[in-house]
Design goal:
Layout (H helix, E strand, L loop, with lengths): L8 E4 L2 E4 L12 E4 L5 E8 L6 E7 L3 E4 L5 H10 L2 E4 L17
Parallel strand pairs: 6-7
Antiparallel strand pairs: 1-2, 3-4, 4-5
C-alpha cells in the first residue's frame, strides 16, 4: 500500500496487514449466552466513535424475535416493528420479499 506510515503496515507469516487509523476494528459476531437461571441473552460489541475500544451490549431475549424458516417475510417484517432484534434460526429461508429493517442502528 502506498503513502502509509511504517507503523500502519506490517508483514507476518499470515501475510501483509494494514491498520486503518480511526476505523472500527474487526467486530466479533453476535453471540448468545445463558445465565444460571436459564435466561438467554443476545450479546454484541459496540465500538466507540474512533474504534479504539468497545463495550459488550447484553440484550435480554424478551427483546429478541427468533425467526424460523417457516416464517414468511411479512411475519418477520411485522416482528421487526415490535422487536429491536431478530435472530434467524439456521435453515433455508424461501422468502417472497426482502426483510426490511427500518430502525436505525
Amino acid at each position: 500500500m502506498q503513502n502509509l506510515a511504517p507503523y500502519q503496515c506490517g508483514a507476518s507469516k499470515m501475510g501483509t496487514s494494514y491498520i486503518a487509523p480511526n476505523q472500527s476494528a474487526t467486530q466479533r459476531k453476535p453471540w448468545i449466552t445463558q445465565d444460571d437461571m436459564g435466561n438467554f441473552y443476545l450479546n454484541y460489541d459496540e465500538r466507540n466513535a474512533d474504534g479504539s475500544t468497545f463495550t459488550t451490549v447484553t440484550v435480554d431475549f424478551t427483546q429478541v424475535y427468533v425467526a424460523s424458516q417457516t416464517d414468511t417475510a411479512t411475519h418477520i417484517n411485522a416482528m421487526l416493528e415490535q422487536y429491536d432484534y431478530v435472530v434467524l434460526q439456521p435453515g433455508a429461508y424461501e422468502l417472497d420479499k426482502p426483510i426490511q429493517i427500518n430502525k436505525p442502528g
